[in-house]
Amino acid sequence: MPVLTRRRRWVLLVTVVALAIAAVGLVALRGCRAPVCDSVAYPAGGVRISTGGKGGVYEAYGLALRDVLEDDLPGLQVEVENSGGSVDNLSRMANGRVDLAFISADTAFRVPALEQQAGAPGRIRAIARVYDEYVQLVVRSDSSIRSLSDLRGKRVSVGSEGSSVEITAKRLLAAANMNDETDIQRRGYGVSQSADLLADGDLDAFFWVGGLPTTAVAELASTVPIRLLPLDRYVDTLHRQYGSFYQSATVPQGTYTNVPDTRTAAVPSYLLASTTLSADLVFRLTEALFTHRTRIAEVVPSSRVLDVRTAISTASIPLHPGAERYYRSIKP
């Protein structure tokens, strides 16, 4: 066996080290596309996504997004958490408990105050406007309830505490000259529990704000005949008093079993990211969101409407630097 000189041993060692570094680089760059072609640092504890209640669209979207991210970013750990909804999600992000979250646009006004309370100004940023949420006031088809005013004295769920449903329900009842504390038998359930209670006759109506179709409402409609109450007459009031994000919309016939076209209100929803996540990582997260929107749509039909032209419209919440870089990178 030939004896290696000191010089040859040194060259061999340098070569081995160089090959090892290159191998690590290839792993780190798996799926890399310009302008982010350096290794992306993952948070030590992974990425935590705060969604919403059981049976809601936020939950379904969060689970689908987790699968996409874990496939696109090998080695990234993604945890999906249920929550009370939009306001709860904002609080969790402001306090550093989660990294990504879904919210309804009508709760965005709370961002500055929550950041201030948490001592973290500027922590909450947006990735995209992802889809529109529809206000749904659900009753059994044999119910005598035909309008908001018919809810007086009835057992009504206005959504779980800390949800955008609660905010919207309160605003709608006020638009109909009703108080959610005194004019109804107020309940505070999430969509799944509300649907179960309505089916059992232990609830007269419930509010829900979510994408179409919402799993819990669809499952309810498949077993118990339901109706959605028209709410479009109150959109102008909501628009004037609270913001232009409230718009008239229609829940199309066929969304739920035997439920005809129903005019209602809609409000955008946003996917948010904490500034504790690096710009490089959020670039890749945003890229994955758009690259795999068809795959996500297999689970969440609402995600089909995701479009780069409207995604940047996140109102008072600025884009995360990583998301902003992504949108600039795809401009023609």
UniProtKB/TrEMBL annotation:
CDD domains the UniProt entry points to: PBP2_TAXI_TRAP_like_1
Coiled coil (residue ranges): none
Designated name of the protein: TAXI family TRAP transporter solute-binding subunit
Pfam families xref list: NMT1_3
Domain of life according to the entry: Bacteria
SUPFAM superfamilies named in the record: Periplasmic binding protein-like II
Alphabetized PANTHER family for the sequence: SLL1037 PROTEIN
Species annotation: Cryptosporangium phraense
